[in-house]
């Protein structure tokens, strides 16, 4: 994989004058980003794959064909983190450089053997866990793990078209009563991982956090109330909602909500 320069940036979300990583380019050529990442990225945890790739709904923004690298194309100024072969989390160039430095230093922090086999870390080090398979050993301080977990949850903000991502296994439902509109999230995800829900394109606010749910140890996300909004009839209907799995960084479409308007 070639190392990109940090300036200038192109509108495709990667530095000018650099090539696409071979693995990612091969995936794009063979299947297209949606299908290539579908089975690998939309798994509910390490070693668990979906029976079939998800079907992308009609996006609220530009058609996927308009995006040079499919639905996970980064907006200008951001690049894929590329910690693993299926890591489309969009981060700053500086964050990707930091991740690469950690990966390069990781082998020196391994014990070589122990309770977790050859990936066992030396005392004072822990796995980074940007994804379930990420066993790079980093400082026990937790700074690296906290950073990548935050990138996983917030990466949706750096996508060129968040509403255009494919559907996954976590979805939302809407309900109402005489006073309020409600939005609930449920489904299946990485066991134990928080799921961050985002409403995309809210007028006057853009993309905003809609709520948080957590998968249990079996990977089940129980029905969790995300929003409770007084019905005032002033907000828009059909706002797209996406969800980011903080254990993997995978962003998927969860549905649409009317909870910002007179649902």
Notes on the structure:
- This protein has 263 residues and is an alpha+beta fold.
- Helix content is 16%, strand content 26%.
- The protein is built from four helices and eleven strands.
- It has helices at 22-30, 33-41, 93-105, 143-154; strands at 79-80, 90-91, 125-127, 137-139, 170-176, 180-188, 194-202, 206-214, 220-230, 239-245, 251-257.
- The chain has a four-stranded antiparallel β-sheet with strand order 8-7-10-11. The chain has a three-stranded antiparallel β-sheet with strand order 5-6-9, with no helix packed on it. A two-stranded antiparallel sheet has the order 1-2.
- The radius of gyration is 19 Å and the shape is globular.
Protein structure class: alpha+beta
Helix content: 10-25%
Order of helices and strands: HHEEHEEHEEEEEEE
Percentage beta strand: 25-35%
- The overall average pLDDT, rounded, is 79
Low-confidence stretches: 1-59
Give the neighbour order of strands across the main sheet: 8-7-10-11
What coarse outline follows from CA principal-axis ratios? globular
Q: Give a count of the beta strands, DSSP E runs of length 2 or more.
A: 11
Tell me the major beta sheet.
4 strands, antiparallel
Instruction: Please give the radius of gyration in angstroms.
Output: 19 Å
Distance between the termini: 49 Å
Q: How many H/I helices?
A: 4
